[in-house]
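Section 5.1 Outputs to date
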Amino acid sequence: MKPEEKLQAMGLTLPPVARPVAAYVPVVQSGSHLYVSGQLPIRDGQLTDRGRVGSDLSVEQAYQAARTCALNALAAIKAHVGDLSRVVRVVKVTGFVAGAPGFVEQPKVVNGASELLVELFGERGRHARSSVGVAELPLGAPVEIELLVEVAGG
């Protein structure tokens, strides 16, 4: 089953590519690798959530926001290469989580993106990862996800 078909079977659809909020592009390709800029939990042009995890949002809410970030990253990949079947491997996921003071459950939040990618791509979706706690993120977002993927025909 093609990844786009699997997404549909999962009840998910790719959104339009989120517009950059500053001076950068959504994806840069170097050889067979795509560097996907950090994606925020944006749906229909608006942040789905704002604030810090642990005070303004629960871990579960932030987990869902990370899934939205991953869908936005997948939309950027598809727009760049035309077909998610070209993804050979998800190499690295970096997740940034804006947490309340003392919040230490960043990995649980970033699992929202990681688990979606593994569910979608299977073994090709297993990746290296960093989960980083930060004080603030752009636009007041609770989470930001960036990807490094390898594609066929690079």
